[in-house]
Design goal:
Two copies of one chain form a homodimer. Chain A is built from ten helices and three strands. By secondary structure, chain A is mainly alpha-helical. The structure holds a DNA duplex (30 and 30 nucleotides).
DNA sequence: TTGTGTTATTTGTTATAACAAACGACAAGT
DNA sequence: ACTTGTCGTTTGTTATAACAAATAACACAA
């Protein structure tokens, strides 16, 4: 008998620490962890229903990636971004995401741009429905959709790392802000520029997008430089 | 009795996995691991005289940082850089190290530049003595000395990560090449530009330095794109 | 000789227990 | 009231053993 055409899919091997890592990543990116709070191994292990070994592995990786801070006694803390750290992150983000956008503009074909245009339409729909969480998710896919077009895996990886670092405060951008931004839609402008193969212009738009969001977040800082969640948006924190 | 002025230094807490991590980092950066070879946990554990738990931790972190590749069965492999991966790395390096240099030029004071000038002199001495390993070490300190002046910790951290990724093939730059490069000393030129607060010029010089080294390494690629160690330089590999 | 199933070995994964450092509560002394 | 020492609890670290998946070696059959 012939084994082909059986529609059997490859069985993926995914260790426990890998799944724990993914879940923590996701939660961080969605802002479901309170900045400054500590991640306790035994506590997480109980939540996941595993021993501490795999969670220790996952947390350890996050710390190694700079996504989590290490507090006293090598405990893992959800980063509580200060203004200066945020400013620094923005510098690196504009540099890397700008470059990725420029490369993307040179390599993108019409179909690529069309696919992104769909995401853009979805984003507008989500804003109108005030669905902040799904908006943020599509927003992320839009950005990374552009960066993926650059075709430079390492660059993509590092940008992902930067977003993870911003994760805990990423959800602080409230719907009001997103809506008010509609006047100057850098996303649309960047996409238009990519379609026209204008790398410089596309880069400038993405950089402007990043810097506007950064400026907004910087405006949330209190006296000590801590970026604080705006009170009008609980955002399902935990 | 007064506790001050007892000349007691702070007792550093350094877990086993941390020391293992440091040692592996160092070895990678010095090119003491053969590209493509596998790091075996129990083997390393025996070398370090510990159980596999701390080495697993250390290796796991290195993989999370992208410094080690993960092969089949989640084993850790010393990356065997292909031409394309090297090209990509160079893109990110020029972007990040270029920006860091520009920032450094704006913030450096005379004393900072003088300190770097000393390292530059040391480098020349090491070239003449054909002490490749110490040359590479000082060379690294010179570069990071510049980048540290930018005063952006996150940027520094990411650049360090990029160097770690290049680590295994970094020692492939043979003395002959380094010497032949003396005609166009980008290091000196960059430092001069920094002293003159010419950020644009300094950035260009550092970028040129990176790209020249990159082009040299790219020239070592064989038919499959693998970067191979030049036969005339065993470089104490193991 | 070639292909195939079996077995032994290697090697990463996970759970568990013992351990040690840090932290907090609390009581005693000043 | 404030400090200080002690004890119990919390929590990360390490070693160890059992486990499971992959690989290699090998024997047997076509």
């Amino acid at each position: 008998m012939n084994l082909a055409d059986q529609n059997l899919s490859r069985i993926a091997r995914e260790p426990l620490w890998d799944r724990a890592h993914s879940q923590l990543r996701e939660a961080l990116l969605a802002g479901r962890f309170e900045p400054g709070s500590a991640l306790v191994l035994r506590q997480l292990a109980e939540t996941f229903g595993t021993s501490i070994t795999p969670v220790r592995d996952a947390v350890s990786r996050l710390v190694a990636q700079g996504v989590l801070d290490q507090g006293p006694r090598n405990s893992a803390l959800v980063p509580d971004l200060k203004s200066s750290a945020l400013t620094d992150l923005m510098v690196v983000r504009t540099e890397l995401e700008g470059r990725a956008t420029r490369e993307a503009a040179m390599k993108a074909c019409a179909a690529d741009v069309d696919a992104l245009e769909v995401l853009l339409a979805d984003m507008r729909r989500m804003i109108e429905k005030r669905r902040l969480d799904t908006y943020l998710d599509i927003h992320r896919r839009f950005h990374f959709g552009i960066y993926a077009l650059a075709g430079i895996p390492i660059l993509l990886e590092m940008i992902e790392n930067l977003w993870l670092r911003c994760g805990p405060i990423l959800s602080f951008v409230v719907p009001q802000y997103v809506v008010s931004l509609k006047g100057t839609d850098h996303h649309q402008a960047a996409l238009d520029a990519i379609r026209l193969r204008d790398g410089t212009r596309a880069e400038a738009e993405i950089v402007a997008d990043i810097e506007e969001a950064g400026a907004y977040l910087l405006g949330l800082a209190d006296g000590t430089g801590r970026i604080r969640r705006p009170h009008e948006a609980p955002a399902g924190a935990r």
